[in-house]
Amino acid sequence: MEVTEEEQQQVEEQVEKLLSGQGSEVTMCDVGLDQSKPATLRKTVTYIVCAIIFNEKEEVLMVQEAKPECYQQWYLPAGRVEVGESIEEALRREVKEEAGFECQPITLLLIQEQGPQWIRFIFLAKITDGTIKCLSAADQESLQATWWDRQPSLPLRGRDILCLIDCGLKYHRNPWHPVTLPIDLSCRHVVQRLVLIFTNAQDQIWILLVKAPVFHLPTAAAVKTHAVTWAANMVVQEAMPSAYYDHDVNTLGIFSLQHNGRQHGKTDGVCFNTLVTLVPDHVQRNEDGEKLELVDMGRPPLVENPRYSWYEVQNQTLREKLLEKTKNTSTVPVHSLY
Predict the structure, then answer these.
(1) Could you give the count of Cα atoms lying within 13 Å of 240 in the half-sphere of its Cβ?
(2) Whether the Cβ atoms of residue 272 and residue 192 lie closer than 8 Å to each other
(3) Which of 27, 275, 282, 289 has a C-alpha 20 to 30 A away from that of 165?
(4) What is the pLDDT of residue 294?
(5) CA-CA distance, 207 to 258, in Å (whole number)?
(6) In this predicted model, what pLDDT tens digit does every residue of 114-140 receive, in sequence order?
(7) Percent composition of the chain: helix, strand, coil (DSSP 3-state, to 5)
(8) What is the SS3 string spanning 68-133?
(9) What residues are paired with 196 via a beta bridge?
(10) Nearest to 120 by CA among 170, 71, 151, 75
(11) What is d(CA 256, CA 247) in angstroms, rounded to the nearest whole number?
């Protein structure tokens, strides 16, 4: 079953759309749905938002915790997405409650996850109004806020935020991926839509497709026992089981993120539109543990499952865009904390 010229154009248009930071409705899930529960805030998923905000001196906005377990310690403005909220609405609310400021998200910087049940969305944001929260306004959300010059004297609730601040500062000075903000498209589960590519030394590129009902990019549901990005491994295992252990499946980052959250238990899911590479494992060994010489076949591994097919990208412009994304990793990174 070959890809027709019309189907080629449709596939390339879908990939171009994701490359430009857009999204599309999730109308089907190809893998893992039987192992996944619908996303329901407070039950099956927890989403955390975290804001990194700098002033003109490149000091970062910090809040002093009011919670008994971390009382008077300092942290970035952060908190849980509540039922009925979008991710951006949650970010604005948390910054207002904890720091006293109105804010505007600039871009997603980084996503951290421990499977679908815990995902943290870290944003670079800017102040648009308000005044900094003082001790006189202390409440259960926070005691106060301050601008921190990153000197070590401030007692921190957790040192995990130091790498987040560094990431924000790096992007603030020299953005390395396009502005990326959540797209208001509903999704019932936590899913990963894959632009899964294989490239060779001649810079040819193939994209893995699912054939029916029409040729389309694979979508896989996240399962509770693994990282969200394990969905890509599930697709490769299903499509080409014999080649799976001879290749690395690398989720490089997201082109875009889809979330709605308006209907509790029905639209609490998120869709990660991701760039994934399938790379031959260059260290292979025989049964005696001796290294084997890897032969570069120059083509992607054989697809064994008739549901799938490789499609070689013919469009020169699209090929160049995909190569640039893979070589410079100019996508929002997803870090799995397992």
Answers:
(1) 21
(2) yes
(3) 275
(4) 55
(5) 22
(6) 999 999 999 999 999 999 999 999 999
(7) 25, 30, 45
(8) HHHCCCEECCEEECCCCCCHHHHHHHHHHHHHCEEEEEEEEEEEEECCCCCEEEEEEEEEEEECCC
(9) 276
(10) 75
(11) 26
